[in-house]
Every structure is written in structure tokens, then in C-alpha cells.
Amino acid sequence: MTLEQIFQNVVEGEMAAVEAGVRSALEQGIPADRILNEALIQAMAKVGRLFEEGEIFVPEMLFAARAMQTGLKLLKPALAATDVQSAGKVAIGTVQGDLHDIGKNLVVMMLEGAGFEVEDLGTDVPPEKFVQAVQNGAQVIGMSALLTTTMASMLKTMEALRAAGVREHVKVVIGGAPVTDAYARKIGADAYAADASVATRIVRQLIA
Amino acid sequence: MIHNPPTPDFARLEKVLRRQGQPDRLPFVELFADNPIMAAVIGEPIPVIPNAIGVPIDYAAQEYAFDRILRFWLEAGYDYITVPCQLVFLLNRQEIKDTAGEQSKGNRAWVNEATGVIANWDDFERYRWPTVADLDFHSLEYVAKRLPEGMKIIFMGPGGQLENMMWLMGMMNLSFALREDPALVEAVATKVGEMLVGIWSAVAERPGIGAMWLGDDMGFKSGPLISPKYLRQYVFPWQKKLVEITHAHHLPFLLHSCGNLQTIMDELIDGVGIDAKHSFEDVILPVAEAKARWGQRVAILGGLDVDTLTRSTEDEVRAYTRKVIEACAPGGGWALGTGNSVANYIPVRNYLAMLDEGRQYQGYV
After folding, report:
1. Least CB-CB distance to A149: which of B96, B281, B345?
2. Domain of B199, in residue numbers
3. Is A152 in Cβ contact with B172 (below 8 Å)?
4. Within A82-195, where are the H helices?
5. Domain residue extents for chain A
6. What is the pLDDT along chain A (208 residues), one digit of tens a residue?
7. Which of A156, B3, B52, B301 is the most buried (most CB within 10 A)?
8. What ipTM describes this predicted complex?
9. Whole-model pTM above 0.90?
């Protein structure tokens, strides 16, 4: 199976075909980082574009992400052996008081699909857990909130990052239903991301 | 407290819902207000009424609560009271501490989005599906007998077709099942749809009902949650049946649906046949633009952005409300209200300021 076919199967969310394709590519001696960069990451970039353009929806994105993760799992041992570096380390969570996690999960999947190492902090994440993630090496923090009332936890987290003296060591991206670019500026975050695909692009720019 | 003498007249709101020109004054509209808000307005606590299958109904507590809830809707200036369905599907819910400050409800409940109660056919077979026989009409009967002259009931369904499918299966499970087990999705859709049709048929003919309101969140910030292809397959046909039942009883059908539905609005108006659309967010599409775009074909309800109402000063809310009224009220077909509901994190003074600006509107005099 060619890299082009793996690419297409990720876009179409064909998990079994992606698994077979990645196995076959490895057996053919195609380097793991080539499979990752030219098939999986490129495919997820296309999925992100299709999502942004309204051509596909949450289910199709989930299918593609799951297919990508299946391929990525097969590549990981080979990638570790060749010491391929991740695109960066990101910690992401739904803020304290909020259990909404579909949006956050999509961002996690898209970031993984773009080659980032992602720590999923889960939901109802207190400020100190974000601080700890930065102390553990996260270069970017992602925060998600569904409601105006829980969005206030983003400000508390920003204050906690400053109080812990780690704010200058990390970039902060926020998103969610009531969140806007203006709110990001107001609380001193580095960026607002409108959806999972945009978030991936912004994270890449922030740590370039 | 609100001191104006209430003068409810459901015909006023109905004129808006049927887009029959300008009413005598600007009507108010809400899907619901959280209990702490209603309690603050009437100056008395209002207990939460449990609604679950198998939980014995405490009719005295229900009546005590509805006496106060009815007072809220009347005194705040509405021409109706919404009465929610007392029967809901059993779901996988989680609760955590509410962040709404002094108006906190204690805990806020969230449906588990990843994993619902139905992940496979075994779950489907085991699930305790409610039936129309489980419906209890006491609250509807009680409120109907106590309606002040001019007021009617708007019945609020137990969530919508897509909502209940998502809540029962979990959004992620539903997403995977759409491709991998369409028969299960079809079976869940049919069970939910049949239940909603049963409820609609039983309620629409009851005394005091003025309209039927379906809450069915179908969108997120930039588009529908699932493809229009799937909406046409599993959701719109059932919604259309509910509209047909509603219209057969000569009642208007209101749809509350959050998120960006711009790509499916034509189908909702022309295909499903809704009479009114509710739920708008300024970050998606300000209600004034929605009125300009669809106001000739469907009533547009509420739309004052919940985030703005929550995070603005009272003066800012007044100015914002006046601006929205000036854009939306001319010609009728619009009622004043929030973009979603009077959530407990909206400051009461801001909510009351919004209503006060509505009372002062002179455009229909």
C-alpha cells in the first residue's frame, strides 16, 4: 500500500485499512517518520481543512482521528528507535467546574495527528493541575469551557500560572462556545482557537 | 421584584409566533429560568421537582413549586408558563460543583458526552425505555386550572430527537455507530421518536396548552454537530411528525436549538415546518441578523446573548437590549428574551433590566 493510500484511508476514517497500510509500509522499509509526516499528519491536516470548511462534521473527524491513532500506535516503536522528536508538548484540559469534553477531545486528536505530544488533563481541571503540567514541560496549555460561568476558571488559571512564576515559560490557547478572541486578550492568553483545526495551526505557530 | 401589574394575553405572543404583524406590546419569551432566578424575582425559594422514572411523585411538593413558578412567569410579564415534561429518559449524568456564585444551585449536572447508557445491542435491550403510560399529567392539569385569565401553557418536551440520541449513546459512541452500527442508531432513533410522538400526541390535546416547544440542540459553534445527511435520516423526519401533531391541534411549534444551524435553516423552515426558532449566540449569528435573514418565514425568539447578559454592567445590558429591540421588534415576529435561558449565572439585576427595557419599548404604541 502506498503512502497516498494510507493518507486517503485516514481521511476517510478507514481504521482497518490504515492499520494494514502502515504495517505494509513498514515491511516495505519505508521509514516511520516518512509514514508519519507524509501520510498521517498530512491526512489529518486535510481533515482539519474539511472540518473548517463544513465539508465534514464531528463523527467524520472522530473516525479519521481514530484511524490516525491506529496508525500512529504502530509507528511509535520505530519512531522511538529513530529518536524522532515530537512537534512539541501540549497539555490540554476542560477548566474547573466544566465537564464538557467533546471539543477538548477533538483538539487532542488533531494535535496528536499533527505530531504533538499531548497530555490530556481531562475535565474539571483545577488551575494547579495546569501549573503542574507546565512545570512538567508543557510548552503550550490549552483550556476549554462550555459556559460563561465556567469560562471564569480560565482567568483563575491564568492567575495561577502567573503566581507560580511559570507564565513566561508557556503559551496559552483557549477555546469553547462562549470564548472569543477578545476574551483571550482580556485574560492575557496568547490566542483563541475557534475549532480543533484552527487550534492545531495556532499551536504550531506559537511554538515555531 | 417587578411591580408592574401583569396583563397576560397569550394572543399577544401567538401573534408573534404566527407572524401576524405587530402585537399591542413587546412580548417576552423564555424557554425556562433556573430556580434561583425565579426565586430571586418572586422573593421566595422554589424547590426543584425531581422527574425520573420510578421516583414516586410528591404531588404536594409539585403543586407548591408550581404555585411559585406560575407567580414568576406572571409577575415577570410573560403571557405563558412553560411546563416541562415530567418524564425524561434515564441518562448517564455527572454532577460537579456549580460555579454560579451566590445564585449557585449547589451542583450542575452534565451528560457524559463520551459514554452514554447505550453502547451496544445488549445495552439497548436492557434499557428501561419509558412509555407513554409512564406520563403523569398532574402538573399540566394543576397549572391549567390555575392559569390566570389570558395565560396559557407552553409544553416543553423532554429534550429532542437528536439530543436524546446523543445523550443516550454519548456523542462519541453515536458518532462511531453512525457508520459501524447504523441499525443500532436507527433503533435508538425509532425508540426516541416514538416516545416523543407519544408524548406530543398526549399533551397537545390537553386544556390550557397554547404551543409546543421542542428543545433539540443540533449545532456547535461553526456548524451542525452531525452531517445534514444523518439529520435527514434520523432527526428531521421525527421532528416533522411532532410539527404535524402540533399543527393538527392548531398550535404553533417552537424549536429551541443551540449552535450554528445556518446550513440547515431552510430545511427546518420548509421541510420540518417549524413556526419559530429560539436560541441565538452573538459569536455565531446575532439575533438581528437572524431576524433579517429568516424573519419573513419564521418567528425569531429571544436572542439576547447570554454571555453579554452575564458579563456586562446593568447600563451596558440596557443599551444592548435597546439596540436589539430596535433591530428586531419592527414589524413583529419577534419576542424579547435571552439567547438560551435565564441561567443562574446571569445577574438578576441584568435580567430584570432586559425586561424593563422591553416594557419601555414604545414602538408598538
Report:
1. B345
2. 10-90+127-360
3. no
4. 102-113, 127-135, 148-163, 181-187
5. 3-82, 89-206
6. 799 999 999 999 999 999 999 999 999 999 999 999 999 999 999 999 999 999 999 999 999 999 999 999 999 898 888 877 889 999 999 999 988 888 899 999 999 999 999 999 999 999 999 999 999 999 999 999 988 889 999 999 999 999 999 999 999 999 998 999 999 999 999 999 999 999 999 999 999 8
7. B301
8. 0.88
9. yes
